[in-house]
Structures are given as C-alpha cells and as structure tokens.
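Exercise 7 asks you to align residues with tokens for two separate proteins.
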Amino acid sequence: MTGRDEAQRVDLGTPTDDPGQGHRVLATADSEAFTSVRRRATTREERYAMGKALRHDVPRRSLGDWHPSPGRADPVALLEESHRGRVPELVPVRVARMVASPYGFLRGSAVVMAADVAALPATGIMPVACGDSHLGNFGFYASPEGELVIDLNDFDEAHPGCWEWDLRRLVASIWVAGRENGRTEEQCHDAVLACVGAYRDEVRLLADMPLLARSYNRLDVGRLHETATEKSLRDEIERSVRRARQRTSDRALPRFTTVEKGEKGDKGDKSDLDRPGQRRIVQEPPLITRLPTAEREAVAVALDAYLQTLAPHWRRAVGGYTLVDVAHKVVGVGSVGLRAYVALLEGSAPDDVLFLQLKQARRSVLAPFVHGGSAWHAHQGQRVVEYQQALQTVSDPLLGWTTVDLPGEGPLDFYVRQFRNSKGTIPLDAIDAAALTDYAGIVGHLLAKGHARTSGASMIAGYAGKGDKLGESFGRFARAYADQTEADHALLVAAVRSGRMPASEGALDKVGSAFRP
C-alpha cells in the first residue's frame, strides 16, 4: 500500500520498544500520509473493501470474547503504579471514590482496561481515540459562539488507538452503570445494542460525506432534544441544560470565593493576594486548598506562558485579565492526586471574572500499547489539547497548555481550559431503562463522530457492516467485562481492608455516588 494507506506493523498487545510483530496499524492519526496534498488517496470504495476484508483476519464475533489470561496483570498493582507521582495526601481520596462501587472503580481504572483491551483482537484501524470513553465522559459545554453542545468531554488519555478500544470501554461502562441503577441484564443488553448500532450507522453516514463536511457535524442541545425519543430523557436533558447554563464564572464567584477581612492599612508582610479586601478562593480541605507562596508564583508564571498557546484574539482577551488567586482543587476520579489548579482572574470590574483550570497531563494509558517506550509527545498538555480539538467538533477557545516548574519537583506538563463554561452532564442515576437505551444511542453517535473526524471511517464502516453482528459481539464483551469490573472492584475493596491500599476514613462504611462524586 502507498500514500494515505501506508501501513506499519506494531504489537498492540504488549508494551514494547520493538514494533516488529503483531497487528497491522492502518491509517494512523499520526501517519505521514497526512503531511502532503500531492499524493492521491485511495478511493472511498477501496477503503470500504479494505475494511470488509479485515473480517477474515479479525472475525466480528471475536470482538465479543473476554477471558482474563493467566498472566493478566494484578489490577491493584496497576493502580499502585499509576499512583506514583500523585500528591500522596490525595491518593486516599481517589481510592475512596473508586471503592464506592464497581462503576466508580471503572471510572478510575482506565489504566487497567487499557492493558486488557490492548491484548484483545482488533482490526488495527487507528483513529484518534479518547482513551477513557466511559458513559460519564460525555457532557455539555459552551461553544465559542456561546451555544450549548454535547460531546466527548474528557481527553486526558486521548491518543491514536484502535477504535475498538474506545467502543469496548463505552459499552462496558453502560452495562456496569445499568447494573448499578438496578437495570436487568436484558435492559443493559438493549442499551449496548443501541450504542453500537448508533456508532455503526453514524460512522457509515459520515464515511459517505466529504472530508470537510464531517468536521462540521455537531450535536447542539436543540438537535439533542429532537434526537431523544424517550420523554423521560428529554425531561432530564431540559433539567441538565438549565443547570449547565448556570455554571459560568460569574455565578461561581459567590460559591467559590470570599473577600479577605482586615484593616485597610494593615499590609504587614502580606503578598498582593493576601491584602484586606482581596477576593480569595474559599478553602475546603482536602478538596480545595490554598498554595504556598512559591507554588502560587510558579502557577502565575505558567499562566503567562499559557497565553502564547492561544490564538491571537483569545490571547489578547485573556491577557486583559489579572490573576487574583489560585488554589488546588480535586476533580473527578481518575485525575484525583494529579495536580489540578483553579485560577481566579479579574477583568476591568469586580464582577468581570474568569475561572481557569490547569490540569496536570501525563502520558496516555494507551501510549505504551501503540508506541511502546520509544515514542513520547514532547508536551503531554499539548497532546491533550490537540487531540481534544481533533475529536470535538467545537472546543473551548481558551484551551491551551503550559509547564509549571514546581519548587523541589521540577517541570510538570499541564493543559488549561475554562473552569466554568456551562459544563454539565446527564445524571446517570436519574434516568430509567428506556432513557438509558436512548442515551446510549446518543453517545454511540458522538463517539463515531469523533473517530470519523480523524481517520479510518470508511474502513471501520466496511468492517462493521449494516447488521447486528457487531452489536451482539460487543454485547457479549460488555456483560463479561462488567463481571470482570465487579471482580476487580472486590479486589480493591479487599486491598483497602487489608491496609495495602490507603483510603479516606469511612470509605468502606458507606456507598457514595459513583455517578456524581
């Protein structure tokens, strides 16, 4: 094959420095095939045929198989390894959120599932993959025009990878979440079929569209309401949209901040951020904590460098604000323990405010199974930003990256985004069985859209076909891997009980909400 179909060979099953054996990797998102307009691409029909031919090497029924191998890595050991480099005091918070339920475990164990799915049959067609496409990582946010859209919204693990890896994680999360909500196995199966069917149909639809037209396809809240067929889901969408529209920087001001008290003339040794009358972010230890002076200054310097990664207009707009305060704020499940800062900036008036979030970025959990140990992105924050922009139709215009040179620790990679730009999600514990099936179809559509925007859509469509064979296979996998997730969760609970893994006090005495930690 030549041109845009040039292939390489790499072992996707085991992290290795020697990509000499194993699956074919076709149309990778990082391929040199996308660096020239002087070579003619293969036709759409040829690419469909290539995808269909892959059914011989990787039968679609084989995608349904899951049996843990005798040499499968200990999931608790993988989590322990992932805790290296995290803030030690926050690791127990992360573990507590994961032991809350099997779904909480699945949310925080992308590293475990990446190792599992990389060893399974795959076609080798590699668009940009989300890397953590579970059911809770789809949500609302404001477009640059201020319109509310829904799309994938977590890209910490984004990296070129097999499309099956993302779809496996999504369908497994649907089954685990369904069980946690009291759904029957048949209802979970129906939801997975809806998800895979929507993925199959959407990728075929987009594969038949001109390349540029695929890049404009998006789902705003108006179309979302029309797409949802179940009244219960439409009602929940309306409630979630109302909540999301309230999540803006100015509305966050009274909730997250307070004004420093003191005498006007009492300056003492206080820095500019500690002056009486100065607005400060409210502490809620251990989830929100203020920073030592040196660390705070390092973040301030990093924010100046971040401006250089923005488009000129947005650089000028954000550069018109002044940093008022910065704090460390724990977010999510998988990210807990990594550095995550919230910065409060003020414009030309006290009510003109902007909250920015800086999140530490490390190597994607997919990378070892694609590049082994030999290929690294120069900046992990830049990786997150560029792959987010690849997968989303529209992205936060303030998305950028920087490096924070922490005293005593050295430079760490971060990406930066708006903290409050009308973000929101559909609360999974608030939807019934019919709504879960309906919503599963919507997120399947969104995942297909993201993959089709990058590469491989025609080959995926040719492989997937038009019937339910793909859906039935993924349904078998989802049920089996839901069982595996419950077993792995039990191992983590046992590790906490034995003292091997630290967890916040009382973590085992109560079951929290893994849907909305």
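Second protein for Exercise 7:
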Amino acid sequence: MGQESSSLVSEDTKTDTLSDRSVAAVAEFIKSGRAKQIVVMTGAGISTAAGIPDFRSPNTGLYNNLARLDLPHPEAVFEIDFFRYNPRPFYVLAKELYPGNFHPTISHAFVALLAKKKLLRMLFTQNIDCLERAAGVPPELIVEAHGSFATQRCIDCKTPFPDAEMRKCVESASPPNCVRKECGGLVKPDIVFFGEQLPNTFFANATVPREADLVIVVGTSLMVHPFAGLPRLARDGVPRLLFNMERVGDFGTRADDVLYLGECDDGIRKLVDELGWGDELEKMWVELVGKQEAERQRSRERHEEVYDELDELVQDVEQKLELSEDHDDHYSNAIANAVPQEKEDGERSTKAPTSPPTESEDGAPLATEETLPTRYPEGSIKESETDEGTNSTTQNVSKKEAFDIGKVTTHTPVEVEGTTATAESDSRTESDVKDPNPAL
C-alpha cells in the first residue's frame, strides 16, 4: 500500500482507474471485465432492513437502547469479563438476534449474486447473524471476523456444545454450562467478544484485500480493529466503493474512492441497476425470502416495529435482571465489595472487567474498539448537521419515511481545508413517499 493523503481528495482530482467517482463508473468498471477479484466488507448496516438494529445508530442502535440498563456501559454485553460475571444480559440479546428470526436483505443477496457470477474473491463480515450464509454465499468465501452463532463452546475448556441444546437455552434466555460436569464453565456462541482473539480464518485471509481489483464496503462504522484496517490494504489505483450512512475510515482520500451516503439497500439497487442485474437480483432475493418479507423490507415498515421490539427487549432485560435505573453503579460496586480469594489451579476468572488488552500473551491481536478522533475542518458537514443540497448522513430513522422509487442522484461537494470530495447521495420528492405501489 502506498502513501495516502490525510485529507479528502479535491473535486478536480483525476481518477486513476475509474472514468469518474460515481456508482455508474464502478458498474462500468465491473462490466468491462476488469473487476474479477471483488472483496466485500460488511457491517451491521447491511442487516438493518432485515429488522436487526445496528449498534451505534442514534435512537435505534442496540447500544443506545441498552444504555439505560444497569450495566457499566452498553458495550459490556459483549465483554468477556462481564460475561463471566453476569452472562444473562447477553443471552437476552441472543434470543432476539439468533439465526432464524430474520431474513437476508437484498444487499446480502447481492453478495451471493457476485459469488454466483464468480466475481467474489472474499466476503469479510463483522456480523454474527449468519445472514450471508442464509443468502447463499458459499461458506468458503466468508470470513466471519467476529465469529457467529453457527457454533458454540465452553469459554474455559473449549468443549463444543450441542446445537439443539444451545437453541433451547437461547430461546429461554438461560445461560448454559459446559457438558463436562467436572468443568461446569459458561457456554457462549463462537462470537468474538472484546478482549478475545479473532478467529484463525481472519488472520489466514487478512492479506486478501491486497489481491482485490475492487473493494466494496457496506454498512460499517469501521471503528473496531483489526477489521477496520482492511479497506486500507487495497492497492493504489484499486477502486473502493462505500455504501454507508456517513463517511468512515479513510474513504474519500483516494482518487478512485466512491461514496454513496444513504441506505445500503438503496445504494446496492442503484449499482445493480447500472449493471443491468436488477431483475435478476430481485427475482433471486424474492425467491429466497418470499414476497411478503420482500415487500416488508421494501416498505421500511420494519423501522416502526424495531422501536417496539427494542422497548420490549429493554423491559425484558430489566425484568430478568431485576434492575433499576437507580442502581447505575451496581456492577462496579459488586466487584469493589467482593472479598478477594486466591484462585486454585483451573479456577475460572471472575475479576472485574478492565480495559481490554490489544494483544494476547502470544502477541496475537485481540478485538478492540477504538473511538477515532473527530475532526470537523471548516466547511465540512458535521454530524447531525444537514447541508441543504443533500440528505443528512445521520438522518433520524424515527421519521419512518418510505423512499423506494423516483430516487434522483446528486453529487454534493464537501469542502475540507480548501479541497473538495464528491459524495454521492440521494434526494427524493414528496411524490415518492405517496406512491402506493413502489416498484420492485
């Protein structure tokens, strides 16, 4: 990887590979046959249309809706030390997120279509919902960087736990224990928690992005490392296409970066329409999920249901844990007041969560979350601010607006310290919302 500029490219910067910085130009690049090794990287945003909330979106993100629970912080639900101390919050969440409760989105089906057309080199996903598998992406082309619900085992002796028994425990939100009675350790799905090592498959394929001739990133904040560093591995001159609600990582700093800021499914549909694959993808997806589910996702009705489900989820956690909003320090106080005891050989750790290390004793990187410094140079669009010529990249989904047809693409320059980057967004008219028969 060559030297990268720390600032956004200007609008008049010439592209190295694409005809211009647009989704249409990426489609042209694919149709020309020059993109044969496409690497796709996905995050929680690809699954929101399926009804699975992402983690960080205002109002609808899981972290936001868990914030009022009696936890040291919402992320503690996915921290291994807190899990040892109290696994029940995770299992209440697991009941909601478990595979089989949700259906793939058209974006998942798009990745499967790339594989079908022999254009997919590898899919790297941060998601644990297994929807890529459900969509038909071959398992050998999937790197589940943060693990998945597909398998589970004891966190102490690593003995696998039966699938059927695990489903029963998840459905009842009851944490299971190891099948080896002499161990008795807690069991959890093979999901990577903060403080745990990533799967070996991630490190075995970590250099694959260097082989890509096109990188597509869909619905991720790129805040969790080492996954967040994957897009930077693309070689100079290799186009990178981002479908996301806002600019993330170093996107926009290379001449062939294309940013579609908006709903992931809308961006994917635009790309496949430009490719001439629209009808093929829609047929493939509807056959996969059924007409009713496809229409539900198209109409965005699930946004309204998400709010109700999350409220029920929070109430369920509060009831099961007998928590109160007046006991914010319960967890930390319980640890602080615990009587220290010497650990015998083989005894499981019950120490309070601390800041997780970034690497294990043997030097292997661990899953960590980094809050990147936010820089707002004069003239840039800040978070929660809207430029009149484009949709806000942090649009509040509580408006529950259905935008499915009549989309008009615009290119709005974003000025940063004397330079300009063009971000592709979408604007729609009032008539789009009123159309009772959205196109398939």
